[in-house]
UniProtKB/TrEMBL annotation:
Lineage: Bacteria, Pseudomonadati, Pseudomonadota, Alphaproteobacteria, Sphingomonadales
Pfam family, one: BolA
Family, as annotated: Belongs to the BolA/IbaG family.
Protein name as it appears in the record: BolA family transcriptional regulator
């Protein structure tokens, strides 16, 4: 079963409460998403560490309920 975009957004916001999250369904199939996440929690972390924070927020659903996620992260400006 695929995940809904609002569920992905809610999980990320639960782990990173200050996050600005934009989710885009890339294929219209509920399986392939792009996420742009902006959070102060990324300060001082490498890009890999930033992505790990987001993946951790998704609680192991990557590769299962969530087939593909094109992820970009950034600090607030």
């Amino acid at each position: 079963m695929a995940m809904a975009a609002d569920q992905i957004e809610a999980m990320i916001r639960a782990a990173l409460p200050d996050a600005e999250v934009t989710i885009t369904d890339l294929a219209g199939d509920g399986d392939h998403y792009a996420a742009h996440v902006v959070s102060a929690a990324f300060a001082g972390k490498s890009r890999v560490a930033q992505h790990q924070l987001v993946y951790k927020a998704l609680g192991g659903r990557m590769g299962g309920e969530l087939h593909a996620l094109q992820l970009t992260t950034a600090l607030p400006t």
